[in-house]
Design brief:
With 388 residues, this protein is mainly beta. Helix content is 14%, strand content 47%. The protein contains 5 helices and 16 strands. The radius of gyration is 53 Å and the shape is rod-shaped. The chain starts with a helix and ends with a strand.
Amino acid sequence: MKYRKILLSLFALMVVLGTSAQTKPDGRYYRLFAPTTFYHSGANKSLSLNPNAGDEVTDAVDEALMHIYLNRPDLVQNTESQLQKTGSVREDVNQEVKQDVELVDQTLPAPDEPEALPVGIVVTKPNFWKFKGDGFLQFLQNYVTSNWHKGGESNYSAVGAVTLELNYNDKDKFTFENKLEMKLGFQTSRTDSVHKFKTNNDILRLTSKLGVQASNKWYYSLQLLAYTQFAKGLKANDEFVYSDFFSPFDLNIGLGMEYKLNALDGKLTGTLNFLPLAYNLRYVGRTTLFDRNGMEGKHTKHEFGAQFTGDVKWQIVDQVSWKSRLYAYTSYKRALVEWENQIEFKVTKYISANLFLYPRFDDAATRDSDNGYWQFMEYSSLGLSYTF
């Protein structure tokens, strides 16, 4: 009972002293809360005739521990002598421990951040269609006096062309390519008393290809090729019409394999179409042109044969490119070969010069006494060009 009273008194003393110390922690109480140890100071005070009085907190702690030593010795786990063997006992624990608190500037409260709202994810369907095109408008002027030592005549010419492409590629298996080519050129000649101007370049051509991938660069291919011209084909001082719109008109459908060409680090690109199964329909509207186109007295003619189409572009340097198209068709009775070559020289972004070379072989046409079935056209021009 007496032991309990002493503890209560000691607890009250701790409260009073703690309050007076402004609730700061005091290290002198540590012996009450550490593992129970027999300290010499309490026994010395009890057995000494003239005990040295300490401060009130230390005396109270020593008195409380002596009651534990006498009444519950079984709780004592260590002795002060054992502690000294393992290490020195701190002598400053009987002194009040005061904390040196360093004051710092008060920090401002963190700003309130807006609550993060969930972000909606929008998945858009990829667009496999691609549209592109290019065009040019170019002119050529030539003046020669009547007494020029080599002869010749003055003339003016102009040529314009537009190429449009709409292609589909799902990057997996299917391709669908469509190209529309339109080109028309005119020239004037002083010695031509019949015509003020006449065409020197005229083509209207549509090429459509459906491809199904067979391997890395090979595709099963179905190709449709349709072509004619815009205006009448004339010669100087001659009223005869040598060709016209839908005179002739050719429609060719071929089935075979296509090879995607990509070489020289991407500078040489294009397609090669091998079509062993091909159907050709030729229509001539003008009856006067039947013989020139091998129509045998009828407006339409059906043929089956084989076809090859090669369409490539070589970017030789940044300012010079070469576009080439080779078309060959045979019905095993007649043969048609066309080889179009266009060399473009870029002067600036919008100004270019073109050299166009076009050899052609057609043994269904009327045979010429000098050139046989071979035909050739060449022109050069300078003017505006634009790619989109």
